[in-house]
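Notes for week 9. Today we move from apo structures to complexes. The key idea is that a small molecule is not decoration. When we ask for a structure prediction with glutathione present, the ligand SMILES becomes part of the input, just like the chain. The input block below holds both the sequence and the ligand string. Read it once before you look at the output, and try to guess where the molecule might sit.
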Amino acid sequence: MQLIGQYDSPFVRRVAIALRLYGIAFEHWPWSTFGDADRIAPFNPLRRVPTLVLDDGTVIADSWAIIDILDQMVGPERALIAASGPDRLEAMRLIGLAAGAADKSVALVYERVLRDAPLEAWVARCRGQVGGALDLIEAARASRASPWLFGDRIGHADIILAAVGRFVGEALEGVFDMGAWPALAAHCARAEAMAEFQELSQPFKVAAPK
Ligand SMILES: N[C@@H](CCC(=O)N[C@@H](CS)C(=O)NCC(=O)O)C(=O)O
């Protein structure tokens, strides 16, 4: 299978890290959503990443859908999320917040690079949304002393928390002070120390045209 997208995207990165932790082999096509839109389009008309091309040619768009497919491939025993119960509920709550914070962070980046004059009301709204979501994530992470959110084993919620934390810190440096979320920052540092996070990473760079 092929994973399309660059690792400076928190969505692409969460998928790549899940693939690696599951031991599922994949080829990486590090195409940019803007610079390589024409290459992505034949696989995914949305021209978005992550896009996963399965071995039978089926194309799956969106990290939520891709992760669901991967979880099914490995089965509930190995899935990086509880199959049911309170831990699944809490994981989904946090994944939803983290994915939303990532969405709105990406929106802030696009606002900065695609417009000559950012729309201030929209920027303020996005900043409030990201900050509010990260406040809730911080509270949840600070309330748990375990290495990962649900014990000793890293899961999807841990991965996306770390991916979004890094993205906000890099792509929105100077906009948000990561010191406001110390438990999240510690979580990010623990994740970034892992071989999988180091291998599947790319410093953020602006690739979008004005
Ligand atoms: N909900 C999507 C969000 C993916 C997303 O926003 N990807 C960005 C890159 S970080 C993208 O493709 N941007 C180009 C576009 O939206 O046109 C997911 O979870 O995969």
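Residues 85-198 form a domain with the Glutathione S-transferase Yfyf (Class Pi); Chain A, domain 2 fold (CATH 1.20.1050.10).
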